[in-house]
Amino acid sequence: MSEIVKPTIEGLSCPVPLPHQERITVGHGSGGKMMHDLITKAFMKPWDNPSLRAGNDGSVISTHGHARLVVSTDAHVVSPLFFLGGDIGSLAVCGTVNDVAMMGARPLYLTASFILEEGLEIETLARVVDSMCASAKEAGVQIVAGDTKVVGKGSADGMYISTTGVGLLPDRVNIGGAEAKPGDAIILSGTLGDHGIAVLSARGALGLETELESDIAPLNDLIAKMMSASSRIHVLRDPTRGGLATTLNEIARQSNVGIVLDEGTIPIKPAVDSACELLGFDPLYIANEGKLVAIAAEEDSAKVLEVMRAHKYGHEAAVIGRIAAEPAQRVLLKTLIGSHRVVDVLMGEMLPRIC
Amino acid sequence: MSEIVKPTIEGLSCPVPLPHQERITVGHGSGGKMMHDLITKAFMKPWDNPSLRAGNDGSVISTHGHARLVVSTDAHVVSPLFFLGGDIGSLAVCGTVNDVAMMGARPLYLTASFILEEGLEIETLARVVDSMCASAKEAGVQIVAGDTKVVGKGSADGMYISTTGVGLLPDRVNIGGAEAKPGDAIILSGTLGDHGIAVLSARGALGLETELESDIAPLNDLIAKMMSASSRIHVLRDPTRGGLATTLNEIARQSNVGIVLDEGTIPIKPAVDSACELLGFDPLYIANEGKLVAIAAEEDSAKVLEVMRAHKYGHEAAVIGRIAAEPAQRVLLKTLIGSHRVVDVLMGEMLPRIC
Question: Domains of chain A by range and CATH?
């Protein structure tokens, strides 16, 4: 999409980028259209290669006749460092484990590089490291390499953590954003928006206080069970920055298909629903860190759903829509009152520093 | 080493860490003893596994009966972003390419995650990305995955870049810090300290102005040629943070050997020498980004040296010392006047944000 379109987020003023925007703004880190444009312009052109062009959560790399591997990387800058249900450490491990797993690969190894701010309490670092350890253990991955840099006071917000994951891609697995086919079912693994609202709540901003926990979780075991149940899972994606709306728009473009969602089937916790109403947010755009969208052949959707619902990270899984041939590259939401509205990508930034 | 010893850096006040230091200081990012202690305490214990324990620049990972791979990761926080001979982009690519290559592996793929500060000029980002592209091209690696996060003004210093490299380790190659053997020759690929002094000069700090360029370079081609010339290269290491002194101390400990250097054989540019004299620095502790130390069987040292001197990144290569059985875990420098002094690891921080 080259046109600049207005976002569909109610109650928000999303800045429309200038044609020749010359400085980085928070909107460039949103996961939405501004970030997409920046990445296309600043990175994809100079670095162009098939892995980047595929636009998936991870890249498939070959090792010269040996195994196919998947690598994926993410920087984590969440603020605050700790919140209900998680912290920057569990986020850094689970986020990257999930990106590797969304390619259908089995995550095996992680690397972690830390940027620490002078003055950070070592006790705080220790808590984060322990949390990474626990998440890595649950996910069954080893953290095999790391790096630590220290920057002066004010040059980082406590700490930033970049993680890179390496996973093994089984033969014949071909899961990716371009594989959705008309007729496929769209399955969401659970409730939307828990992570974003939990982080926002931890900021104490906007007078919001909830007991809501982030959904941060490693989803590789869930995915392994789904893949055992069906060989016709075409797309797996975790709706992080930019939320489900942005993720589905990416898939619609990559696969050149239409997506039709049924609003009444999308699981949302009452606490998220009321927080969003209060703040003027749309849960479809809120970041999640322990949820996935699976697009699978309709014939297999019942058995995929069954294994998901039997798993602790998928017991609220639901079929939330279908892939259609038309309208190509668009996401439509059939609302509760029966009308259809276009669900666009996130334009600017809704919640900075959410992951 | 559990004891806390004074550093041997003349003219510098290196803070001796308190036994129960509770906050991160710039010294924790130095590459020296404080960083080593932090890593041991904060990361190695909770994450303990053989790859981390090996303490090399990269980790060898297996892919379940397929190829042996090497992964390595580094965060880059150099300040300023641009300096003579390089920038944060060339540093981020070459630094990680070199860490993978120092394991004897052939670097193939990189990932890059960016933390961008709000307000950064996109033109600046574009220059850095172009620079990464040029370095990746020279090194023959592909940048296959990336991530971009944006933090608010003041929460990063322009940008930080974390890169992770993946390389293929040929069969039977076993290069690592624990492989040095008494009698081995120690070969340095060129002059010491160029990078550190070039960055310092770009800061305009300390009244220092030089035309000296950083030595940033991808060393994988040089290493490939060295490995073709000899199958008895036991250790390869790039003396980055903490400089040659710290790197050799690490090797002395890992291999449980003594190292004896001959001061008169260590190549140092006159500009680096005078800058160090002026500032009270010891070139042995200054960071390099395009140099390597090779420890090889004495019988092969002449042919290794020959291919190094024929290479553009090794034409000033020299044998600078020998591995000895004693004094175990110590580095000694035979000075120009014939005395011996102990060369210890860097203790605190000499030049923060050098890489």
Answer: 60-169 (3.30.1330.10), 185-342 (3.90.650.10)
